[in-house]
């Protein structure tokens, strides 16, 4: 069975801690991107929310079965602006996906539309189910 990710309990703990303490993209730690992931047919689809991010600020890298997604959302006001409320996270957003060995990391595709980054990760040919023919010395004698 092909798998998308191995479980990383410390990453989830970090995410909950950041959320509880109110860290944003302006903190020392990168902010987390909300994600959905599912398998459809022979590929996994991962969707990450990145509202207000420009496509040229998104960076995807694969190294040793780890897909790293980074994006940056900058402030859309100048330095001399008197900001009254700044609740929207800014800065660098980062997420790592641990890919299983049965996925084809060489053929990952990504699209960005309406604030959502969609990544498609195909299942490797070697991991797809296949039919194995059973041979024998004399198949006719068995069927007779």
From TrEMBL:
Domain of life: Bacteria
PROSITE patterns attached to this UniProt entry: SHSP
Residues covered by the SHSP domain: 26-137
InterPro entries cross-referenced by the UniProt entry: A-crystallin/Hsp20_dom, HSP20-like_chaperone, Small_HSP
Family the UniProt entry places it in: Belongs to the small heat shock protein (HSP20) family.
Protein name: Hsp20/alpha crystallin family protein
